[in-house]
Specification:
- The protein is 45% helix and 10% strand.
- The chain is mainly alpha-helical.
- The chain has 2 domains: 72 residues, no CATH class; 50 residues, no CATH class.
- The protein has a 3-stranded parallel beta sheet with strand order 2-1-3.
- Strand 1, helix 1 and strand 2 form a beta-alpha-beta unit.
- Helix 1 packs antiparallel against helix 5 and helix 4 packs parallel to helix 5.
């Protein structure tokens, strides 16, 4: 089961650095840290990252989870699943390096699309099909 990671951003708008870091962590769920800090209820998630508000500080961070798991590398099966989620068609015998490169390229493309869309309407998701 895929883990939900919330990446908190300042002022509701991810910076280029935020987008890059979120992509490295494997998340496309962004939340405004200031708005989340004012909310009495925390949104259910497995990990948090970015500019974490105080009311989410008790939750595990992605970096802590990756350190606990060792390298934090995904298996070939997990990479193939992520590629399928992104709608990528990859040969069944593709190496992990090919899978990672294709996924990173598509996630970068989606991040650019999300950044352009956010400038127009303020919505933030680098994976429009992902549920929040």
């Amino acid at each position: 089961m895929e883990k939900k990671i919330i990446f908190f951003v300042e002022n509701g708008i991810p910076t280029e650095a935020d987008l890059v870091e979120a992509r490295k962590l494997g998340t496309s769920v962004f939340r405004n840290a200031q708005v989340a800090a004012e909310d009495r209820n925390t949104e259910p998630c497995d990990f948090v990252a970015g500019h974490i508000p105080e009311n989410y500080a008790h939750l595990p961070t992605v970096s802590g989870a990756k350190q606990a798991a060792g390298t934090g590398e995904l298996t070939a099966a997990e990479l193939k699943k992520r590629a399928a989620e992104l709608g990528l068609e990859i040969a069944g015998n593709a190496s992990k390096a090919v899978l990672v490169a294709a996924i990173e390229a598509e996630e970068a493309r989606l991040a650019e699309v999300a950044a352009a869309a956010a400038k127009e309407n303020g919505s933030w998701s680098t994976n429009p099909g992902a549920s929040a």
